[in-house]
Amino acid sequence: MKVRPYERSNLWRSAFQKRRNDPDEGDREALAGAYRQLRDRAGDLVNQIHSALPHLTVHDLTHADTLWDVASEICGPDLKLNPLEGFVLGASFLLHDAGMALAAYPNGLEDLKKSIEWRDAVASAWKKRGVEQPSDEQREKPDSEIVDEVTFQILRSQHASQAKKLVTALWTQPSSGRPMALIQNDDLLESYGLLIGNIAASHHWPLPELARYFGDPTPASAAWPREWEVDGLLLASILRCADACAIDETRAPSFLFALRRPQGDSKRHWAFQNKIYPAKRREDGLLFDSKSAFQMAETDDWWLCFDAIEIADRELRGCDALLADRKRRPFVVRRAVGAGDPDILAQTVKVEGWKPVNTLPKISDPSGIIERLGGKQLYGDDPTVPIRELIQNSVDAIRARRFVDPHFRPTDDNKYPGLIRLSFEEIREGEFWLIVEDDGVGMSERTVTRSLLDFGTSFWSSSSAAELYPGLPSEPKFKPVGRFGIGFFSVFMYSTVVVVASREFAGPKRSWNVLEFAHGVRGRANFSIEEKIHDVSAPDVNTRVMLKISEKSFQRLQDRYFYRNSRILSVEDMLFHWLGVTTAALDVSVVFRFSSSAPMVVNAPLVYESEASEVSKRLSTLLAKTEHPPLSEDENELLAPMGSKAEGFYGYCCVSLREYQSRLIKSVGGIGTLAQGPGDPIAGIAEYDVSAANRRPNKLLAPQSIIVPWAKDQLVRLRRSTISDQELEIACYHLGELIDDVREIFRVQSSVGWLDLDGMIAELEKSGEMLIPVRPIQEYYCVGVYHSSSQVSLRLNELNCAQLTLLPTGHVPIQCADRGIIQDWEPRIYKGFWDTLFNTLSERKIDFEVFLINKFPFATFSGLESHRDQLFKGGQLIQDLIKIKVR
User: Fold this and answer.
1) CB under 8 Å to 502, separation ≥6 — which residues?
2) Could you give the CA distance from residue 297 to residue 304 in angstroms, rounded to a whole number?
3) pLDDT computed for residue 810 by the predictor
4) Which of 346, 610, 653, 790 allows an S-S link to 614, with CB 3.0 to 4.6 Å?
């Protein structure tokens, strides 16, 4: 597409146009010539961007030429550049996008593939496709779709920083071996190459960084007139504003649009820019106008244009304020007309057949949302949640440092470096500071003031983490516990007074970033940078979080836990015990101190590497002060690690031999909670996954490749044990929740005693029929009996059964009579009673039928008589039941 020659732009002419009696004419022409030489070489480079990124809008030489015109419109006729500024600005125009060409890298795509950023992006691409832990082959040889996606992502994200390197980069002429640079004038390259590279790269920097980096103007070198200073801040502002405002037909010419046929999001960018005229100045605003109206089918394109104009407006307003603050030459244009207002924008960027109304969700009270979703409405009324979340944040910071700091790696003397210190410091009676300190990676100013406060966005999955710690996102062994970006805000469940102090582990030791909340999330926090933080417990601490705990909040903690005999624990003892459970599976040491007491070591990492006797001892200690019974002697003998160091540890547990009592610490990334409610299939400590932001354990984290060998080992141990038939029946039921074949420990209780699988089939063939009572409500080792219009629960030894009868338990689940006959069974599955029974009968070619019989007199009563329940010796017992009949 033909574009207006850059030499006709006001800015070019202000710097290079010939003038009468010009004593500096030779220098002016030399710089204009140097620019043209650079333009020729840079043009060859940027014209290759299309090869690597075929769906991108135009980023070739015409884009750089157009920026002269857009910048002139923004700056206005009175802003003049000297020739050195004209050369530096033009060079920045040429190079700011050049990093998106594969030719910008000495070995092209292979250089990208060797980078840490490539590994991180590949891992991220697999995660977006549901593969949380890609294999080595998936990482090393991703499919072509991922290669294209990652190439686009890396070139786009790295192009600004790569532009900085291109200024001094050398290419080798293949025939002669002669090195070649983009800037051929040695003085310009030496004196202004770094400045050009930084200005080119700065268009992707946050705006405040411009002011910090570009200070006073750069002097003219000895080869040029002294008054030709180069104002880097002004030129960087011109580049970022012109680039943001260059969203018009020159970026998406019609014929090129037809040839390239971009898809997806790229197509939308092409579509809207293809309709927009180059922007023009109107008073202090930049006006965008469309060639034709956007139809109903093009609403997404119009809104993308709306968003792009908002970005342009933000850059214009920000740079205008920055230049005014630094007393630099101002732009005439200070805003984009219609930005943020669909009604006004639609007057120039026209629509037809519809009306743009901004219906994006709005949050009128973000502080209220944070209070509710970051507090009780998410976590419930659990006063321990803030402590748990702060520990979790410290754990993630320490684990991250183990990977990014070579001096913090595990050694033979210290296998798990890192320490969390948690303390309660009494302010006055009933009022405390809760303090959590760690020696993890620490936080920069940007992390403290932005990422920490970004509600709903996990720092570890953000681009900020990838920028700060390259290689960490693709590290398969780094699995942060924090996933939802909400946990920190739980501290406001406790307190409105919160102080966060942090420093980067590799940064200055006397530079603490301090964020202080005095009114919770309802007020603005105060930020400061301090040389020293008072009362830090150790010199290696990098992050400290302090919460002022009121007497009321402290009382809630005290009321939370009790002995099984209802004697209230002391607060100190309760907290120490709770921390023991919470940190039981951690690979990070935790030390606790209450008021003036001596510090106490809470845990010993890592429990999964301990011997079974040590695990048993720890579990006994942790369960002793709860309502949960300890593991039995038989269960302690069954304790075994789930997984290994090579495969990863997923727990240290045994199959539970109790049907309705849980003795399990469910760990999420090492942060544990005692399981509540009905019995779990396992007892001990195990890693669980979470699917919701409240972090309640959902299901076992271990894959089947880990669970199955562990469960089979449990089967072997159970066969060798001397446990009772009743415990075997429970073990069979529980293991059946984890694996598909538990026949070897199958047990059921019947009217003729306990039976294994072969015994049950033999008795069934001998009797020809087997009865199983149906109960509306199942009860432990009891059957429900209909008698005299009332239901009572009786044990099997109180009945004289006329036929072979099984006792329905958790292992023999029976549907209620009003739900009809039992459901179909799965072939070759032996994990439940019905699957095991029916598959075994089928495999042994025994024909059978299943009947549902209502109100059948299946037994007579032989227990203690009860006039109240009208139970008398010899009385008939009537029950709905299922009959299995074999032929």
Assistant:
1) 442, 443, 447, 448, 512, 513, 542, 543, 544
2) 13
3) 58
4) 610
- 12-28 average pLDDT score: 94
- Compute the half-sphere exposure of residue 469: CA atoms within 13 Å on the CB side of its CA: 28
H helix intervals, 736-887:
757-767, 833-843
Q: Which long-range contacts (CB under 8 A, 24 or more apart) does 824-828 make?
A: 828/740
Tens-place pLDDT, residues 69-109: 999 999 999 999 999 999 999 999 999 999 999 989 988 89
Half-sphere exposure of 291 (CA within 13 A, CB side): 13
Calpha distance 441→421 (Å, rounded): 15
From the list 178, 34, 173, the residue with the least C-alpha distance to 94 is 34
Detail the DSSP E strand segments found in 708-847.
748-750, 753-755, 769-773, 783-787, 790-794, 799-801
Residue predicted with more confidence, 225 or 806: 225
And the tokens for 503? 């420093």
Residue 443, φ and ψ in degrees, nearest 5: -135, 140
Q: Mean pLDDT of all residues in the chain?
A: 87
DSSP 3-state of 507: coil
β-bridge partners, 420 = 438, 590
Residue 637 CB partners (closer than 8 Å, separation 6+): 717, 721
461 vs 479: CA distance, rounded Å = 11
pLDDT of residue 781: 32
Helices marked H in 653-703 = none
Can you say whether residue 861 is alpha, beta or left, with left for phi > 0 and alpha for psi between -120 and 50 degrees? Answer: beta
In tens, the pLDDT along 443-493 reads: 999 899 888 888 777 888 888 888 889 999 888 889 888 866 676 888 887
Classify domain 367-600 at the CATH topology level. Answer: Heat Shock Protein 90 (3.30.565)
Domain boundaries, the chain: 6-246, 248-360, 367-600, 622-725, 746-886
Q: Are strands 790-794 and 769-773 parallel, antiparallel or unpaired?
A: unpaired
